[in-house]
Write a structure and sequence with these properties.
- Chain B: Part of the ABC transporter complex LsrABCD involved in autoinducer 2 (AI-2) import. Probably responsible for the translocation of the substrate across the membrane.
- Chain B: This is Autoinducer 2 import system permease protein LsrD.
- Chain B: It comes from Phyllobacterium myrsinacearum.
- Chain B: Keywords: Cell inner membrane, Cell membrane, Membrane, Transmembrane, Transmembrane helix, Transport.
- The complex is a heterodimer of chains A (about 325) and B (about 350).
- Chain A is built from 12 helices and 13 strands.
- In chain A, helix 9 (about 235-245) links the parallel strand 9 (about 225-230) and strand 10.
- Chain A folds into 2 domains: about 1-135 and about 280-305, Response regulator (Rossmann fold, 3-Layer(aba) Sandwich), CATH 3.40.50.2300; about 145-280, Rossmann fold, CATH 3.40.50.2300.
- Chain A has about 325 residues and is α/β, with parallel strands linked by helices.
- Chain A has helices spanning about 1-10, 10-20, 45-60, 75-85, 100-110, 145-160, 175-190, 210-220, 235-245, 260-270, 280-295, 320, and strands at about 30-35, 60-65, 90-95, 115-120, 140-145, 165-170, 195-200, 200-205, 225-230, 255, 275-280, 305, 310.
- Chain B has about 350 residues and is mostly helical.
- Chain B is built from 14 helices and 4 strands.
- Classes of the chains: A alpha/beta (about 325), B mainly alpha (about 350).
- At the A-B interface, helix 3, strand 8, helix 8, helix 9 and helix 10 of A face helix 3, strand 1, helix 11 and helix 13 of B.
Chain lengths: ~325, ~350
Amino acid sequence: MCRRAILAAANAAIISITCGLSPAPAADRKFTVALIPGLTTDTFYTTMRRGAQIAADALGVELVFQGAPDFNPVLQVPVLDAVIARKPDAILIAPTDVTQLVEPLRKADDTGIPVITVDTFIGTGMYQIGSGNADFPLSSIASDNVLGGRMAARALADAIGGEGAVFVANNKPGISTTDQREEGFKTELAAHYPKVVVLETQFNENDANKAASQLQGVLARHPELKGVFGGNHFSALGAANGVQQAGKSGAVKVVAFDAPSGVVDDIDRGLIDVAIAQHPAEIGYYGVMSAYAHLTGQSIPVSIGTGFTVINKSNVHDPSIAKYIYAD
Amino acid sequence: MKQIITENIPTAPSKHVAPQADHADGTRTVMRYVADLRAWLFLAMLILGFEVWSRFSFGGTFVLNPFNLQSIAIFAVAPLLLAMGQTFVIIAGGIDLSAGFVMGLAAVVAAHVINWANPIMPMPMAVLTGTIAAVMLAGVPGMVNGLLVSRLKVPPFIGTLGMFGVARGVAFLLAGGTTVPVNNSFFAGLGNGRILSVPYIVILAAIFVLLMHYVLSYTRFGQHNYAIGASAQAARRAGININSHLLRLYILSGFCAGLAGVLYAARFSAGAAQAGEPLLLDCVAAVVIGGASLFGGSGTILGTVAGAFVIAVIQYGLVFTNVAPFWQFISVGVVIIISVLIDQTQRRMSGGRISE
C-alpha cells in the first residue's frame, strides 16, 4: 500500500485505469499507452499529445501523458520508472538523451512493455537490427531534424538571394534535435550555397532576451548580416526582436524552426519570414497507432518519418496550412 | 539611460550607508565608498577592456557605437527590474527565488487580459488593464512568500523555492503549455518603440530604478530594510515591525517581477511562462556584483544597476568581439567570484563582520 501511495503521487492518472486489472490481457481489455514527452512545458509536445489523444479516442485506448518540466534525463528517468511500475501496455517516449536513456528504457523492455520512441531517439535511432545495445525499441517515429535544418537553409538562402552572412541562433549544445537542425543547416549551405557565409553560432539557453541581444551584437560586428536561423521557438522569437530593435526588419531575414500559434502573427507583421513547422500531432497519432497495431498482433515499421511544412507570408492563412500550427 | 546613471555615481555612496554604520569612523566610511563604487569601477574597466579589444581586433569602437549602447540597455532591462526587488530582499537578509517564474506568470496574465480586453475597450486602456492585472497578480505569490517568511518562519530560500514551483505551474497552466500571443499594436509599440533613439522600455526602467533608489535610500521603509538585514534582533528591539516589513518586501519583489513580465510581453508580443527562468541567477548575480552581501545589511540600488550592466556588457561584448560562446559563462562566473572576494576583503579590512 505504501508503495502504491508513492506511485500514486508520481502518476495518479494510471492508477484508476490499471487498478484491479489482472496482468494477463483479457480479450476485450482496454489498452493503456503512456506518452512521456521530452518536457511537458513545450507546445511541441502538447501538440504531439493532441495527435496521440485523437488516435487513442479512435481506437478506444487509454492515453497517459506524464513528463518532467525540463528536457533533462535526470528528471525524465524517475517519471519513466514510475510509469514502468504501473505496467502500461506500451510506452511512447521522447528520450532526453541518446545514451543515458538506454538502460532505463531497457528495464521497460525487460518487463515486457514495448517501447516506441517519438521525436528523439536512443542509440543511433536504428532499431531491431540485431546489433548495438539500443536496438530494442520497436519503432522510431520522428521528423528528420537534419532535413529540417536543410530546408531552413534553403529557405534562408533563397530569401537573401543566395549570398551574404548568416548565423544560427540556437538553444544550447547537446540536444539531439537542435544540434541536428544546425548540422543540416550548415551542411546544406556548404554544399549548395558557396556565397553564403555562416558566422559563429550563438547559444541563448532558450532566453529570448539573450537571443535578441546576441543578434544585435552580431549585427554590430557584422553590419552586412543578411539572415538568421532560429533553431527553436525562443531563439527565433528573440532573434526576430533583435532585428526589429535594430530597425532591420526585412533587411535581415529570419527563419524560425517550429510553429507555435504566435508565429502566425509574427509572420503577418514581418518579424519572421519563414517558419519550418514539424508535424508533432502526426508523430503522436502514429505513435499510438503503431503501439495499437503491435499490441493487436500486427507488424509495424521500424521507422516512420514525419514531414515538415514551410510556412511563409503567402500561405500562413491557408486553411490547409493551419493544421500545422502547434496548439493543444 | 547610461547618462542618467553616470551622473549619479558621485552622489550615490554617501546616501546608502546602512544605519549601523552611522557611527563608523572615517576610515570605515571611506572603505564603504570604495566598496559601493567597486561595481562601477568594474564596469568601467570592462568597457575599457572591450573598447581596446575591439579597436585592436576589429578596428572599430565598442562603447562609442550608439547601437551597442542601446542594445546593451535593452538587454539589461529585464534582469535589472527583477534585480530591483531582489536588492531589497537580499539587503534584508532574504532571497526571492520565485522572481523568475513570477515574471513569466505576469507575462502570461498580461497577454491573456489584454487579449480579453481588446474587443471591449480602446487599445491603450486594454494595455493599462492588462498591466495592472498582471502586476497585481504578481503581488500574490509575493504576498505568500512574505507570509511564509514572516509569520510561519520558513527560511526564504525554501519558501520562495516553493513559490518558484507554484508560479511556474500556474503560469504554464494559464498559458496551456505554450506561448500566448498578444495582438495589440499599442502594446507592441510600447515594447519596441523609442523616443530620441532611447527605447521606451529603457526609459520606463530608468524611472523605476530611480524610484526604487529613492525608496531604499531616503525612506523609512528603506532604512528599516537595512536595519533588519544587519540584525533582525536589534531591529525588533528598536521597535520595527519586522513581520509587516517582510510581507511588504516580498510583495514589492513580486511587483518588480510583474513589471518585468509585462515589459517582456510588450517586447515580444507574447506571454511565455518561461520568460524569466534564465534571468533568476542573472538578477541575483547583479545584486551581488553590485556590492550587496548575501548575509544582509548592505547593498545599494545603484550598485545593482552597475552589476546588471556588468553582466549585460560581458555577454554582449563577447558576442561583439566574436568570442566562442562558452566563455560567457566563465567570464560571468569569474566576475561574481572576484566581486565577492573584494567584498570580503573590504569587510575584513574595515573590521566589519565577515559572516553573520
